[in-house]
Amino acid sequence: MEVYLDYQSSKPVDPRVVEAMVPFFHENFGNPSSLHTEGDAATEALTHSRETIAGLIHADGDEIVFTSGATESNNLAIIGYALRNKKKGDHIIVSEVDHISVHNIAKYLEKNGFTVSKVPVDRYGRIHLQKLADRVTDRTILVSVCYASNEIGTVQPVAEIGAYCRERGIAFHTDAVAAEGLLSLDPAQDGIDLMTLSSNDIYGPKGLGVLFVRKGVRLSPLVIGGGQERGLRSGTENIPAIAGMAKAVEILHEEMTDEVGRFTLFRDRLIEEIPSRIPRCYLNGHTKERLPNNAHFRFDGIEGEALLLRLKAAGISASTGSACTSKTLEPSHTLIATGLLHEEAHGSLELTCGRFTTDTEINYVLDTLPGVVEGLRKLSPLYKE
Amino acid sequence: MEVYLDYQSSKPVDPRVVEAMVPFFHENFGNPSSLHTEGDAATEALTHSRETIAGLIHADGDEIVFTSGATESNNLAIIGYALRNKKKGDHIIVSEVDHISVHNIAKYLEKNGFTVSKVPVDRYGRIHLQKLADRVTDRTILVSVCYASNEIGTVQPVAEIGAYCRERGIAFHTDAVAAEGLLSLDPAQDGIDLMTLSSNDIYGPKGLGVLFVRKGVRLSPLVIGGGQERGLRSGTENIPAIAGMAKAVEILHEEMTDEVGRFTLFRDRLIEEIPSRIPRCYLNGHTKERLPNNAHFRFDGIEGEALLLRLKAAGISASTGSACTSKTLEPSHTLIATGLLHEEAHGSLELTCGRFTTDTEINYVLDTLPGVVEGLRKLSPLYKE
């Protein structure tokens, strides 16, 4: 049996999305900048798709900037805002549990004259507003906190942070890719100025990201050229991918409520049954403020990579944390931020379900995982029952 | 009848390429950074595709950096090289006939402490080495000259420039997208350190570019994050697009010689017959050092946009110049650089053929264009026979 419970790392493109993209590959393949029939069709598809995608977050089409993915959106948001607004101040706050791209962007800004503070999280991975407020100075221009952790699934108090930032005139960016398609997103309501989204995270094609830029927020562009995307992101628009993402949004409009209901049942079964079937297994992340598709555990006496390899042999694909750092030997910075020791962080397993997850897959994991953990523990010189 | 002779602006994706991409959308959709079966399959596809794509330019896989397109590749090459190597010098040379993205990047660098010189071209759009050498100083670190003009199709003396730069320890970047799939490219042989390529320019999907980075050449990354592409370009790899581009390269290996032969016949018919059927029509660009698919004319007493609209009404899609600037009212900077007056530059028409161009299409254009030009001239208060 093949079971894929690593939707956090990568999602298949919905076949309906692929179908919507195909005509844009070799029938309607024009460049929106061209003054002919194919160019007009491309412009129309671009405008229509932009409006549809904006609808996912109750935004206007002209608040949507297309990029090549979430990483680029994070770069454009944080570096673009910092460089454009450095006269206002040189201090930026990010969270301890943000994606590695945000942390590496922060390092880059530190080398370029900015000061960066990291706001800590509690043992469930959640930020407390007071801890954020403690770090704000009169030089602070930008706060960047993920909407939810892509690893442990903890959802942040985004509206609270947004209200706080808005009151103080500090821009607020949130990387919302982990929450996309799972939670209802409304940046205007939540005081969010910049929001990173990605196409693949809602079963659209890879290679396409979105940055929501609230009207009036000014950024320096990162990629310079022909002036597409109102000068914020040059390069010929990737119409097939954009049309695909629009289709992915349309599917969500129809199906998100049911889908999230299904994910929640799967997640809750995993969270209830795995610790009851496996001794000394603990849930990572928050019990309530948690993504509906995320179950994340640690096991005493288990090394995460060995566990993944055993699961792979049993046909199960899962993760120990962010895919973006899986191939390094570093423990997850998110788990360390929640106060886990290195060896505890290394003994973790992330299971994320998605659109094509079935009851049978969940049952198989529940039946298989206990034996795999027990087998590994028997080999471990460190583990004692 | 529908005729598309604007392959320079945008190309359809070859149906065989789409077929090669489809399995990567919803069967092999893993993240190469993941430690499971889907991740392994993605890594394998990535490695294999990278080698295939490198083969197009006789390079090694580890000299290939995937980006989101040609514009980003130009940004990474020029800004990335300049920022990383500014201790060596602060002077950069670009050509008058480079793509607008290169010109706008040059402006950006000028605002950031660099000096930029533009090397002029002759009336055929070609650079003379002496004119380049005249502009080199002991502060010059980088020369960026397009391989061929995407507008008038003039091919530059790239090997000559490469040899000159190599001798002086100056890095040489070339934007080769207009020449890709039409001329044989060999950066190692031609003394090229950095070469921009794009997937769509060889009938691969949009949203994917390549930067060839010769071993030993150091760049600052533009997009920061998880450290993909050896730290030069972060972001989850777009495997379906990369596999698609690899398929596009495989097709070229089989078909490029025949295809270019066909294009050359089409181009030569256009270049011979249009000026013979239409009075006061002149060829723009070089007669010999010219892309095999490019025919570019100017017509006395004709306004290019009006011509495009009439052609559109007759079912013909063409261009007045770079699609990236078609919607502005500026005349083509490339034509101005060849010494044309503004009104002459505005009276131009670019016809570029491609993989799906037929004899029937060429015949239709040859039969239709004279009447369209004549009709417009009759309306013109300026044109006198």
Description:
2 copies of one chain form a homodimer. In chain A, helix 6 (158-168) links the parallel strand 5 and strand 6. Chain A has a domain at 3-9 and 255-379: Alpha-Beta Complex (Aspartate Aminotransferase, domain 1). Helices cover 41% and strands 14% of the residues of chain A. In chain A, the strands form 3 sheets. The first copy, chain A, has a 7-stranded mixed beta sheet, sandwiched between helices. The first copy, chain A, is α/β, with parallel strands linked by helices. Chain A contains 11 helices and 12 strands. At the A-B interface, helix 1, helix 2, helix 3, helix 4 and helix 7 of A face helix 1, helix 2, helix 3, helix 4 and helix 7 of B.
Strand order of the largest sheet of chain A: 2-8-7-6-5-3-4
* Residue share in helix of chain A: 40-55%
- What would you call the quaternary organization? homodimer
Label the overall shape of chain A.
Answer: globular
Number of helices of chain A: 11
N- and C-termini, Cα separation of chain A: 30 Å
CATH topology of the domain at 3-9 and 255-379 in chain A: Aspartate Aminotransferase, domain 1
Q: Total number of β-strand segments of chain A? A: 12
Mean pLDDT of chain A: 95
Brief description of this entry?
Chain A is α/β, with parallel strands linked by helices. Helix content of chain A is 41%, strand content 14%.
